[in-house]
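Quick one: structure for this chain?
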Amino acid sequence: MSSDQIFQLFAYLLPSVVTGAIAFYFFRMHTNNEEGRRRFLLHKDSQKDVLPVRLQAYERMALFLERISLPNLVVRVAPTSSNKSEYENQLIKSIETEFDHNLSQQIYMTDECWNIIKAAKSATIQMIRKAAMSDTDSADKLREDVLTETMEKSSPSATALSFVKKEIGDLW
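Got it. Here's what it folds into:
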């Protein structure tokens, strides 16, 4: 083969290779685009079913946080006797029961949100225990101490509730 023949072969082959590479590139782009479109449609269809359930989970956790906020809790859970320690246990049991009732909602929310809700629950229980460790001698006095402590500090459930609201805003 002479150099002229090699040059002619190269001249015929080069446009074919370029055309093949461009066709391959566009075919790959088209395939990726179709795959992305299918994923989007699948995600959109699943959102129709999942979004209301997720919103309901956030609603239930917002209700939980409102119910365990100390002012609401001590108003809702009245002492059955004047025993301070019995009332402390009654308040904590009410929080734990509420939490156990809503435990399944964690699968619909982010781990960060769920951890903040658990931290709010634990902090609320700690506040009750701290108030019970004071020199109070009756359940009514413990009730007053718990309310006084919430006046001085921000409620853990209020902080968690604001995070839940922010996360719901991020869903849109």
